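Try this one yourself first.
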C-alpha cells in the first residue's frame, strides 16, 4: 500500500479550508504519518493530474479513497474515477464518514426527507443498522517512495505565520490516539447526564469529538458502537438516545448538502431571498471580536478565537444574536466560523447557520430569538464560563454579570469596570432589536 494525502486547493473554490482547519490538518497529518512508519506521501495540487500520474509511476493496480460529500468534491472525484478507469486502474470508494449513505435513506415515495425527526426516527433508525467497526490491522505492508514523510507536510505551509495558535496548542490533542482518548473520557465522565448537561458550557457533557470526526481520526461507526455499549452499561438510555440523535444531526446536515447542493449559499426557504438584511460592518466586527456588551455572546466569540471551538449552546445564542438582533446576513457568520473553527465542516456549518437564521430545513421558528441575558442566567448562572473568557468582568456580582449595561454605577465601580473602557456598552437594545427583526420577517 502507498498511503497518499493530496491537499486540493484547486477545486475547492470559495471553500478552501480556513486557518483553524489548516492548523488542525497539519498536526493530524503529522500523527498519521507517524502511525504509517513515516511513509505518508503528501502532495499539493490537482488530484486529477497527480493521482493518475502517481498510479502509473508506482504501477498501482487499484486506487482506494474514502467518499466525500461536498458538491465540489463529488464532481472532482467523479472525473477522477473516469480518468483512472480510462487508464485501466481499478477504483474503489468507501464510506468512512457517515453512518448512513444519503441516497439510501428516502421516504416511501423515494424522495429525500425535509425534516430531521422523520429523517432520523423513521428513516435512519429503521434502515440497516450502522456497521460495526473493523478490528485494527495487525500490520501494514507499505510501499517505499521518495518524498514521503514530514517534509511533505511542512511543504504544505499549513501553520500560521504569526503565533495566533498558542492557546489552540494548549487546548487540543490531535490524532487518532487522542481521538480515542477523548471518546473514552466522554463516555466515562460525560455521557451520564448528557441530555441536560450538554447545555451547560462549563460541564464535561459535550463530547468535543467534532474535529476528530471531521478529519477522520475517529469514525462515526466507532463512536456509535462504543456509545451504545457505554450507555447500556451505565443505564443511561435517555442520555444515550440524545447523544446518538446529535450524531443524527451531523448525518442530516450532510444529507441536506448531498440532496440540496445549494445549501451553502442559497436559502432553503426561498422566501428569505427577500429578507431585508442590514450591512453594518461595525456591528459585525464587534460580534467577531467578542465586544458586543453581552457577556455570553462575547465569551463564546472569544472562546472561538482562542480555541477554534465554541460550545454548542453558545453557538446558537451567538448565531441568533448576529442574524436577528444585528440583522446581519447568515453568510457573514458562516464565513467567520468557516475560518475560525477547527471543526469547520461545510455541511454542518451551512445547515446550522440556515437553521438559526430560520431559512433552513427544520429551522427554528423565526420568532425564536435567543435572549443572551436570560440564556446566560439559565445556563451559566454563576458565570463560570463568562469569567473564563471575559476576565475583565471577573469581579462583577452574579446579579449583574449577565448584563453589565444594566448595572448601577456603584456596582460597576466596585468591580473595577467602566463601560466603554474595560468592557463595551451593549451595542443594541435586545427588546428593540428583537421587534425590528420580527417586523422584518413580517415583510416576507
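Now uncover the answer:
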Amino acid at each position: 500500500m502507498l498511503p497518499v494525502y493530496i491537499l486540493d486547493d484547486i477545486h475547492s473554490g470559495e471553500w478552501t479550508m480556513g486557518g483553524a482547519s489548516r492548523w488542525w490538518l497539519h498536526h493530524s497529518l503529522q500523527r498519521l504519518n507517524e502511525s504509517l512508519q513515516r511513509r505518508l506521501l503528501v502532495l499539493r495540487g490537482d488530484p486529477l493530474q497527480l493521482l493518475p500520474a502517481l498510479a502509473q509511476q508506482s504501477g498501482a493496480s487499484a486506487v482506494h479513497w474514502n467518499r466525500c460529500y461536498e458538491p465540489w468534491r463529488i464532481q472532482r472525484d467523479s472525473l477522477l474515477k473516469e480518468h483512472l478507469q480510462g487508464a485501466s486502474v481499478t477504483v474503489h470508494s468507501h464510506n468512512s464518514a457517515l453512518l448512513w449513505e444519503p441516497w439510501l435513506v428516502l421516504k416511501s415515495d423515494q424522495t429525500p426527507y425535509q425534516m430531521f425527526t422523520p429523517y432520523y426516527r423513521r428513516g435512519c433508525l429503521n434502515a440497516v443498522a450502522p456497521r460495526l467497526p473493523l478490528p485494527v490491522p495487525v500490520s501494514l505492508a507499505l510501499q517505499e517512495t521518495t518524498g514521503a514523510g514530514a517534509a511533505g507536510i511542512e511543504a504544505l505551509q499549513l501553520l500560521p505565520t504569526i503565533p495566533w495558535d498558542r492557546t489552540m496548542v494548549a487546548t487540543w490533542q490531535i490524532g487518532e490516539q487522542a481521538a480515542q482518548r477523548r471518546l473514552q473520557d466522554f463516555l466515562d465522565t460525560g455521557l451520564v447526564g448528557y441530555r441536560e448537561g450538554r447545555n451547560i458550557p462549563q460541564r464535561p457533557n459535550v463530547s468535543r469529538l467534532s474535529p476528530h470526526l471531521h478529519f477522520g481520526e475517529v469514525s462515526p461507526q466507532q463512536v456509535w458502537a462504543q456509545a451504545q455499549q457505554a450507555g447500556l452499561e451505565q443505564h443511561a438510555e435517555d442520555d444515550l438516545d440524545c447523544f446518538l440523535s446529535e450524531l443524527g444531526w451531523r448525518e442530516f446536515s450532510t444529507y441536506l448538502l448531498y440532496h440540496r447542493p445549494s445549501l451553502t449559499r442559497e436559502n432553503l426557504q426561498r422566501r428569505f431571498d427577500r429578507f431585508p438584511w442590514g450591512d453594518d460592518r461595525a456591528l459585525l466586527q464587534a460580534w467577531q471580536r467578542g465586544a458586543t456588551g453581552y457577556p455570553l455572546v462575547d465569551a463564546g466569540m472569544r472562546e472561538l478565537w482562542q480555541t477554534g471551538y465554541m460550545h454548542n449552546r453558545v453557538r446558537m445564542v451567538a448565531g441568533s444574536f448576529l442574524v436577528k438582533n444585528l440583522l446581519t446576513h447568515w453568510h457573514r457568520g458562516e464565513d467567520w466560523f468557516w475560518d475560525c473553527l477547527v471543526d469547520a465542516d461545510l455541511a454542518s456549518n451551512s445547515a446550522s447557520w440556515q437553521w438559526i437564521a430560520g431559512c433552513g430545513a427544520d429551522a427554528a421558528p423565526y420568532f425564536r430569538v435567543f435572549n443572551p441575558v436570560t440564556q446566560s442566567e439559565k445556563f451559566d448562572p454563576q458565570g463560570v464560563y463568562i469569567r473564563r473568557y471575559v476576565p475583565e468582568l471577573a469581579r462583577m456580582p452574579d446579579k449583574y454579570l449577565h448584563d453589565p449595561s444594566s448595572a448601577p454605577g456603584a456596582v460597576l465601580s466596585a468591580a473595577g469596570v467602566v463601560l466603554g473602557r474595560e468592557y463595551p456598552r451593549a451595542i443594541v437594545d435586545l427588546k428593540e432589536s428583537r421587534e425590528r427583526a420580527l417586523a422584518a420577517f413580517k415583510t416576507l
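Discussion: The beta strands are 4-7, 41-44, 62-66, 90-94. The mean pLDDT is 96.
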